[in-house]
Amino acid sequence: MNMGYNTNPTTMSGRIASDVELDSRMEANELPYVHKVGKPPKQDLLKEIKTALKETFLSDDPLKPFKDQPKKKKFVLGLQTLFPILSWGRDYSLSKFKGDFIAGCTIASLCIPQDIGYAKLANLDPQHGLYSSFVPPLVYAFMGSSRDIAIGPVAVVSLLLGTMLRDEVDPVKHKYEYLRLAYTATFFAGVTQAALGFFRLGFLIDFLSHAAIVGFMGGAAVTIALQQLKGLFGIKNFTRKTDVVSVMRSVVNSAHHGWNWQTLLIGVSFLIFLIVAKFIGKKNKRLFWVPAIAPLISVIVSTFFVFLTHAERHGVQIVRHIEKGINPSSAHEIYFQGPYLAKGFKIGVVAGLIALTEAVAIGRTFAGMKDYQLDGNKEMVALGSMNIIGSLTSCYVATGSFSRSAVNYMAGCQTAVSNIVMSMIVLLTLFLITPLFKYTPNAILASIIISAVLGLIDYDAVVLLWKIDKFDFVACMGAFFGVVFCSVEIGLLIAVGISFAKILLQVTRPRTALLGKIPRTTVYRNVEQYPGATRVPGVLIIRVDSAIYFSNSNYIKERILRWLTDEEETFKDHPRVEYLIVDMSPVTDIDTSGIHALEELHTSLKKREVQLILTNPGQIVLDKLHASKFADHIGEDKIFLTVNDAVLTFAPKMEQA
Amino acid sequence: MNMGYNTNPTTMSGRIASDVELDSRMEANELPYVHKVGKPPKQDLLKEIKTALKETFLSDDPLKPFKDQPKKKKFVLGLQTLFPILSWGRDYSLSKFKGDFIAGCTIASLCIPQDIGYAKLANLDPQHGLYSSFVPPLVYAFMGSSRDIAIGPVAVVSLLLGTMLRDEVDPVKHKYEYLRLAYTATFFAGVTQAALGFFRLGFLIDFLSHAAIVGFMGGAAVTIALQQLKGLFGIKNFTRKTDVVSVMRSVVNSAHHGWNWQTLLIGVSFLIFLIVAKFIGKKNKRLFWVPAIAPLISVIVSTFFVFLTHAERHGVQIVRHIEKGINPSSAHEIYFQGPYLAKGFKIGVVAGLIALTEAVAIGRTFAGMKDYQLDGNKEMVALGSMNIIGSLTSCYVATGSFSRSAVNYMAGCQTAVSNIVMSMIVLLTLFLITPLFKYTPNAILASIIISAVLGLIDYDAVVLLWKIDKFDFVACMGAFFGVVFCSVEIGLLIAVGISFAKILLQVTRPRTALLGKIPRTTVYRNVEQYPGATRVPGVLIIRVDSAIYFSNSNYIKERILRWLTDEEETFKDHPRVEYLIVDMSPVTDIDTSGIHALEELHTSLKKREVQLILTNPGQIVLDKLHASKFADHIGEDKIFLTVNDAVLTFAPKMEQA
User: Fold this and answer.
1) Any bridge partners for residue A548, and if so which?
2) How many Å lie between the alpha carbon of B159 and the closest alpha carbon of chain A?
3) Do the interacting molecules here have an ipTM over 0.90?
C-alpha cells in the first residue's frame, strides 16, 4: 500500500486556465487552485472482500505473532495463546504472589456467603454456589487473560437462570430434573460462549448497548433485592413472579400473620451493618477491606447467635443442610436428548450471552485501567471452556462479578493467581467448614445479597445518560422498567429491541444540514452550528450526514428537494437558486438504491433548472458513482474535492447573471 | 431560525496573536487564520424531540396546506386529501378522457385473462380474479393519487397468498374455509396497509431493499413459471411444493404417462406467439398494444379452437365453469373470531406488506417519470381502504401491477379514470361473457402467466447490482435462490434478513481512513483515494467514517490505536508520532458508549505520550462532548474546525522538536 509519503504530482494537472481566469475575482485569502477529484485507484474485488472479512472477524489481527515463525515456535505460541498462564507464569514472582494472596483471601471471604445466597436465587442447593467458585476460577486462571476479574456465580445470571429454569421445571417437586436442566443450560452457555469466541463473533455482544445494560442491571438489582424480602421478613407463602407489583402484594398480604419479627430484626440489623461497612469503604478507599469482610463477619456472628439462642425454634429460617465435600461429577446428568435438550439449549444461550456481556465489560474496564490488551474473542473461549468444564462438575453458570472484581483490584491482585487462591480457600471451606453453616439464618444471606446488588444500580451512569444522550436514557429506562414491572426476559427483550431500533432509526432518518462559509476561511459548515457562516447567493449547499442506503435513499432525496423548496419560498427576493451542491463528505457508502435516488434527484433538479454538484465523495462512493455511470451522467466536472472549489468555479458565473 | 445570510462576526475573535506568530511559517497559499469551534448554540430539548418526531413521521409535512385556513376550507381540503378525485376531477376534460379510455380498454384486455390465471395461482375460482379487477380499481380511482398505476390481482401476491393459505387449509377438501380465510387475509392486508399509512409508518417498507426486491421478484417469477408447467404439460399429479427440485421431479416423473401432447401443443404454440408479441412491443415502443392484446387474442382463438375440435375430450383441461354476475357480498364470511382469525391476520400482514411494496415502487417510478408528487402514506391509506372494501365484496388482495401499469402509461393514460374504464369493462365481462370462457384451455392461461412473469426477471438490474455493490448482489441472489430452492416465505425472510444485516454490519465495522494533505490545497483526504496526498511528519490523521455508537465504539477505539501501532512499526526511522488528529467530519452522532470509547482512547494515548486532537465535530457531537465534560477533559483548544487548522497549530512545534 502506498502510505502517501512520496509526493506524487500526477493528479495535479488541468484546470489551470480557468484558475487564472478565476483568480482576479477571488478574495485575497481564497485559493484559486481547484484540485481534480478524478477516478480513485481501482480496488481489487478479492482484496476488498478480504479486507472486509478481516475487519469484521479478525480486526485485532490475532494471527500476527504466528507469521513467519518456525513450526515449533508456532506450536508453543499456540499453546500460550490457549493457556496464557504459560507466558505470564514464567515471569511470576514472590512479590506478585503476595498481592495475589491478599486479594484472593479477600475475595474468598466475600464470595463464600454470596455464593450460598446466589445459589438460592437460582433455586439450587447452597453447595452449588460454592462448587461454582471452585472449578471455574481454576480453569479461568489457566485460560483467561484478564488479570483482575474475579470468577464465580453472580446475582443477575443466577436470577435469570432461576426464573427461566423455573418456567420449565418445578424446582421443588422435580428437584432432580431441575438440577439436570441447570447443568444442561450451563453446558450450552459454555458452548455458546466458546463458539462465539472461536468463530470470532465476539462483536455480536456489542449489540447490547451500554445504556441498555445499565438499565437491565439496575432493574435486575431491584428485582433481586425484592426477592430477598422473602428471607428478610421470613415470609413463607411468597409469589413466584418477579415483578414489583406481585412481590409487594405478597409482602403486604403476609403482614398480619407471615412476618417473623426475630428474622426481621436479625436481617435488618445486619443489613444496616453491611451498608455502613460499604459506606466506610466508599469514603476511604484504603478501607476497601471493611465491606469485603463484613459479609463473612455477619455470617459468623449471626450463625453463632442463632446456635446459642436456638432462634430457629422461633421461626427463624436457617440454611439447615449444606453438602460437605468437593464437586461430584455431573457429566452423565446433562440432557443430550429428549425434550429438555432444546429447553436447556435455549436457556443456556441466553444465560451464556448475559454472563459474557458482564465478563467482557469487566475485563475491558480493568484492562483499560491497567492499560493491557485483552483479546475479547480469546476471553470468550476461556469463559466458555470454564463453563463447559463447570457443567461437568456440578457447577452452574459462572462469570466475572463486578463487585468482587473491584475488590480484587483494590486488594492489589497482580495476576489470575488470586482466582486460584480464592478457589483453594473455597475448596478448604467445602472440605472442612460447610457443616458450620447449618445455623446460618437465611435473613443474613438476604441482607448480604441486598447490599451486594445495590452496587449494581448505577445512578451516576443514568444521570450521565440523560445529560449526554436522551435516546440512551430511554433505552436504559425501558430495560429497567421492563425488568422491574414485567420480568427479566421482557426487560432483556426491550433492551435489545431499543438498541436495534436506535441503529435503524439513525440509518432511516439521517440528518441533513445547510452549509455556509465560515468567514475568513475556505471551509463550509452547518449554519445552525456556526451562526456566523454566510450563504452564497444562488447556491444551495446541503450536506448529507449518513451513508445513503435503501432504508434512507428515498428520504434523503425528498429532504434535499424540500430544502430547495423551503429556500425558494423563504427567500423570494434573493437570486434564484441555480446550483445545488450536495456535500458528500460524511457519506461513507452508497448502495444501488442510493444511486437510484441520486438519479431521481438529478432528474427532478433538471426539471427545475437547477444544476446538481457533488463535493468530496469518498473512495467507495466515487467508485460506485463511476460504476453506475452516474458520474458521466451528471458530468465529471460537476464533482469537486471541496465545497469551496465548487463555489469558486460556479459563483463567478452567478455574478454575471 | 437564522438562515445565515447576515454576516455575523461574533465568533471570529481570538487566536489573532498566534495567527501572526504562525504566519511566517506558512506556505504562501496556506491560511494562517484558525477559526474557533466553540460551543454550538444550545438546542432546546423539546424542540429537538419535536424535530426528530417530525422528520421521522411527518417528513413530507402533510399538514402544511391546512395551516392558517378557515374551518370550512379545512374540511374541503380534508375531503380532497382523502379523495383526490375531488381536486383533479374538477379539471377533467374530454381530451383527457380519450387517453384514459384507450388506456383503460388496453389494460382491461390484458387483465381479464391474467386475472383468471392469477386466481388459480391463489387456489381460488377464476371469477375471484375478475372480482378483484372490478371493485378495488374503482375504490382506488377515488382515493389514490397515482395517475398511472393499474390496480388488480398480481402474480407474486397471488402466489404468496396461495402458498401461505394452503399451508393452513386445504383448498380442495375445505374449499369454503379456504375462501373465508382468503377474505380474512385480504381484510387484514387492507387494515395493515391503511394503518401503516394512517400512522405515517410508511417508511417501514423502505427496509426491504431494492436489491432484495429484485431477487425476490425474480425468484417468484421463476417459481410461478415453474408452477405453470402443470397446466402447460397437462400434468394431473403435481407437487404442492414450490421449489424447483420438487417441481422438476414432478415434471420428469409424469413424463411417461402424465403429459398430454394436445395440451402441450396448444400451450407451447401460444407461448411462442405471446413471446414474439412481447418482443415486437419491446423493439418498437409504438407497437406496445401488440403484447397488450395478444393474451386476449390467444384466449379467444384457443377457446374457439377447443370448442370446435372438442379437444377437452382428449384430455385438454379447460376452465369449465366460471360464475356469472357481479361480486357477491362476503362481509359475513370474514373470520373475526376462532383460530383462523390469527392465521388470517398473519397471512394478511405479510401479503399486505408485499403488495404495498410493489404498489409504492410502481407509484414512485411513474410519479418520477411524469414529475408529480406522491404522498406514500396517503397512497397506503388508499390501497388499504381498497383492499378492506375488496375483502367485503369477494375480492382477494389487489395491488398495482408492474406490467399493466407500464402498458397503461404507454397507452397514454391521463388519470385514474383509466382504472374506472377497465373496471367497467370487467363488469361487462362478468355480466355478459363469462360463460364463453368455459372452453378456454388451462394451457393458455399458463402461457399467459409465464409470458407475464418473465417480465419480472430484471437481468439488467442484477448486472447493475453486481457492478455497483457486491453486497446488494449477494442480497439479491440470496432472496432469489431462497425463493427458487426453498419457498416464497424463506426467500422473503432471507431478503429481509440480508437487508438488516447490511445496515448492522455498516454500523458495527465502519471504515477509518488515513488522511494526507492534497498538494497546493489546505484540505486533507484519504491517502488511499488520493495517492498524491502527503503526510505530515509526527502527526497521524485518522478519519472515522461513521456515527460512533455502542455497536462500534469499541472497534473504533481499537482500530485507531492499531493505526498508531502500525504507523510506529512501519516508519521507525520517521519522527515519533506526537499528535493523533481524529477527523470527526463524518461522525454524525455519538452516544454514551462512544464518549466512553473516546475517553479510553484519550487515556491510552496519554500513556503513549501522544496528544489527542479532534477536528470538525458536528453540532450534536460537539454538544455531547461538552455535556459529558470530555471537551474540557482533553481541553477545548484541542478541538479544531479543520484538520488544516490543527496541523498549522501543532506542526510548527514539531519542527522545533
Assistant:
1) A590
2) 26
3) no
